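Q: Could you fold this chain for me?
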Amino acid sequence: MFTLPELPYDYSALGRYISKDIMQLHHDKHHQTYVDKLNTAIDSAPELKGRPVESLLANINSVPESVRQAVINHGGGHYNHSLFWKWMSPDGGGEPTGDLGRAITDKYGSFQTFVDEFTTKSLGVFGSGWVWLQPDLEITTSANQDTPLIKGLSEPLLGLDVWEHAYYLDYKNKRDDYVKAWWNVVDWDFVASRIQQ
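A: Sure. Below is the predicted structure, expressed as structure tokens.
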């Protein structure tokens, strides 16, 4: 059985940028629903029990067709959000340092250029989806709860949820304001820790 992970901080910890109300709704309702529906799908395909969600998504063609889309949707939702909570911190923001900071500057010319490109991709996602920073520092997007894993790509270093449920209570339809605020809570230490994985 998959379970809802606890947040690594209080619901109100990101309050200046992402409110307690959003965090409770997003974590307790939306993420819990992905977990519940993923478990329902796995119940109807018992041969999948015990496999980590990463394995299911990375080997999606081995998942029975009868539950494949449910695993993509709800397994993806569970995987994406489990990381999303860790990609944010009340002590986040600023710029990455060390190898990650140098690599981003080498690739994009400056950290601000990287932020601008990531933000542009975030605002360009039509409807609901995610924006990803891959280990090669390419910025990619996906629709719905699709993950890079189902495309045969590596696990992402960083991801941003641009579904309206991630920001609507705080920012209404202003995705640009949400993305701008989100940079203030990015946990660059956690992002950097994923390079070694």
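A (continued): The chain is about 50% helix and 5% strand.
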